[in-house]
Write a structure and sequence with these properties.
Strand order of the largest sheet: 5-4-3-6-1-7-10-9
Order of helices and strands: EEHEHEEHEHEEEE
Number of strands: 10
Oligomer: single chain
Number of helices: 4
Bound molecules: NADP nicotinamide-adenine-dinucleotide phosphate
CATH superfamily: Dihydrofolate Reductase, subunit A
Structural class: alpha/beta
Strand content: 25-35%
CATH class: Alpha Beta
Number of domains: 1
Length: 156
């Protein structure tokens, strides 16, 4: 299974200067709750923005750079999108794709689920997500939080 997990504003903004445009602890808590003890994948730029290994998760970092080294027992550097996609696409285990924009775009066609925290306000920034709602996903759950709506979409 492949799931995208993302936070975006009403204009599908997701990033600013290689970090998040907002700081919302309630959303971090939700992200942690969903991804703890799971396999997550992120692009090299997002990893550099976070600048730390998220604890109690196994992280794949996607890069084209064959010399990129990241020494950590819970991290694997990967280069081949098809290989990682095939590994999880028909697997019971879920790969949580955690961005950024380039990586979401690559994996959206193969995702079964999108977990989206949709901010109530608009923000300033420079990185946008593709509008996944136009790619055959149906909303199956919505929960309201203080600053955002948490929505779950499933492939129709
Ligand atoms: N709001 C959210 O939920 C959320 C989540 C995550 C990230 N973000 C934001 O998104 C922004 C970063 O997004 P981004 O699109 O600029 O970067 P990104 O998707 O994080 O990383 C892009 C990098 O991934 C690697 N890559 C892309 N396609 C590849 C392929 N086919 N094969 C191998 N490697 C590939 C390349 O690394 P190399 O250049 O090393 O080859 C590329 O430069 C930041 O602002 C971040 O804060 C937001």
């Amino acid at each position: 299974m492949i799931a995208l997990i993302v936070a975006h504003d009403p204009n599908f903004l997701i990033g600013k200067n290689n970090v998040l445009p907002w700081h919302i602890p309630e959303d971090f808590a939700l992200f942690k709750q969903l991804t703890i003890n799971q396999k997550i994948l992120m692009g090299r730029k997002t990893m550099e923005g976070i600048n730390k290994v998220l604890p109690k998760r196994f992280t794949y970092i996607l890069t084209t750079n064959k010399s990129y080294v990241f020494e950590h027992p819970n991290v694997a550097v990967v280069h081949d999108v098809d290989e990682i996609r095939e590994k999880y696409q028909n697997n019971e285990e879920t790969l949580f794709v955690c961005g950024g924009a380039e990586v979401y775009k690559l994996f959206l066609p193969y995702a079964d689920t999108v977990y989206a925290s949709v901010m109530k306000k608009t923000y300033e920034g420079d990185t946008f997500l593709v509008d996944y709602t136009k790619h055959g996903f149906k909303e199956v759950l919505e929960t309201e939080y203080t600053d955002f709506y948490f929505r779950v979409y499933e492939k129709e």
